[in-house]
Structure formats: C-alpha cells, structure tokens
Amino acid sequence: MGLTTTSRYVLTLSCPDRVGIVHAVSGFLASRGCNIVDSHQFGDDGTGTFFMRVAFETDDETITLDRLVHGFAPVGGTAEMDWEIHDATRRCRILVMVSKFGHCLNDLLYRTHIGALPVDIVGIVSNHRDFEDVATAAGLPFHHIPVTAATKVDGEDRLAELIRSGNVELLVLARYMQVLSNTFCDTLPGRIINIHHSFLPGFKGAKPYHQAHERGVKLIGATAHYVTSDLDEGPIIEQEVERVDHSLDAAELVAVGRDLECQALSRAIRWHAEHRILLNGNRTVVFR
Q: Across the chain, what does the average pLDDT equal?
C-alpha cells in the first residue's frame, strides 16, 4: 500500500466586500474535499475591500493546481475577485541585488541555507565586484552590471534578461544603492522589494546614521517596501525599530541599523514567498 501524498495550496483574494464571500470560498473547498488549515480575512471599511488568505490541503491526487484554478474561476468572477491559487510547496525564486554593504545579502544567504526562508536564490547582481567571492562560496552565479549614465539602459536590459531566463519571481534590493528607472519598475509591480533606513525622508543622502547621530535621535529603524516608480514611496511591508540614546556613537548606530535592516527585509521576503501580502492601494495587508 502506497503512502498518501498531501498537496498544499494557498488561495489569496481581494474583492468588494459583501455578504457570502467566506461561505463561497469554504463551500468551494469543501465540495472538493479540501481541508482548510489556516485562514485570515480583513475588511477595509475605508475602501470597502475584503481581503482573504486561505491555506488548505488535500490527499486527493486528482485535485491539481490547474483543476483548482479552473474550478474557482466562476466563484472569483461572480464576486469580482482579484485572486490567485498557489502551490504552497513551491519555493519562490529570487534574484538579489547588492552594492557595497553586504549585511543583508549575507543574512539572506544564511537564512536560506538553514531553511528559514522558503526561497531559492538564483543569483547575485551587483554594480561592484565586492561580493563576487561571496557568490562563488555560496555556489551562486554572480553578475556584474556596472551602472553609469551611459550604461544604465543596457544594464537594465541585461537585468531584465536575467529575470526572464531565470524565471525570477522576486527581485530583492539588499542595499542596492542605484535607482532603478521608472520604466523598469513598472514592469515588475509587486515583485521588487527594497530595504532602507527609516530615517527617510528626514535624513536623505550619504551617511544617514551619522546625520541621525548629529541630531541626537532616540529611535532608529528600517523599512522594507515594494518598489514603485515613486522613489522610496512604495507600499510598506514591514518596519523594525529600536530605541537608542546618547551613549551610542555613529558607528554603533550603524551596527544597530544593520541588524534592523536584516530583520525587516527577511520578514518581508518570507511573507511575500508565503503569499501573505496583499496590495491595498499604496498600502499592504499582511496576514502574518
């Protein structure tokens, strides 16, 4: 007698809020013998939009992803849903971009190595060669794409080809210090995550932690957000903060900030990979 195989899926949806949505979803799953193992929902009174994430499983090998998508289409259409069904066992393929600060890159490599992040890193891209050895040690392709005014367009074309050929689902800017063009950002809505210090827009430009030290701040942090054509204005996914005081010098603030950036970025990536984030205009709904 063979072992029973359990398939796991995640359904996410948003739609105009109305009576019967939860009933329609649970009824659809029950009619196919699927067992709901986790469910979250939220109704935004301000926009009249309903959001839902349902994780479910089935032992019926005839219930495939394609059949689920085909069968749910009439339900989604009737309720005007923006919906997706995902294979929960499939790991998200990500491409990591970095410049000269490697703390977030190294943190992501470690978390992926120990299985703390449900992702596959398919390569590392940088406008410098500082972390080529790190990529080699991790067994990952390293792509050096210098960025100047003359090479920016060609560089983004090359980046787009890496994303296409590598079937990349998420582009991660792990302290990548170049601005992507509006045209490029618009081709990947909800598929680029950036990390930056939460001093923006208060401390712009070089050495934000040093600027903050000069002003004697008492709270520092980091923000992970989706990238849009509006620089650093994309929907916020996660923020991490820590109180500080006069005893910390600028270098110590930088050290605290590094840890906060790693934490916020890794959470944002994990939640994205687990299909826990739904866009709500310029905001996000995150079902943790």
A: 95
Phi, then psi, of 122 in degrees rounded to 5: -95, -10
52, 39 contact by CB (below 8 A): yes
Number of H helices, E strands in the chain: 8, 13
| Residues in the chain, total | 288
Q: Are 103 and 263 in contact (CB under 8 A)?
A: no
Instruction: State how far Cα 53 lies from the chain centre.
Output: 16
* CA 216-217-222 angle, 5° bins: 145
* 7-87 placed in CATH 3.30.70.260: yes
Catalytic residue of the set 17, 44, 232, 259: 232
Is the pTM higher than 0.90? The answer reads: yes
Q: What is the CATH number of domain 92-286?
A: 3.40.50.170
- Would residue 66 show up in a list of annotated catalytic residues for this protein? no
The SS3 of residue 170 is strand
Hey, is 21 helix, strand or coil? helix
How far is the C-alpha of 184 from the C-alpha of 177, rounded, in Å?
16
- Please provide the DSSP assignment of 48-74 as one string: TEEEEEEEEEE--TT--HHHHHHHHHH
Q: Which residue has the higher pLDDT, 229 or 113?
A: 113
Q: Kindly report, residue by residue over 77-108, the tens digit of the pLDDT.
A: 999 999 999 999 999 999 999 999 999 999 99
Task: Return the axis-axis angle of helices 250-273 and 208-215, rounded to nearest 10°.
Answer: 120
Q: How many CA atoms lie within 13 A of 195 on its CB side?
A: 33
Cβ proximity of 134 and 141 under 8 Å: no
Report the amino acid identity of residue 179: V
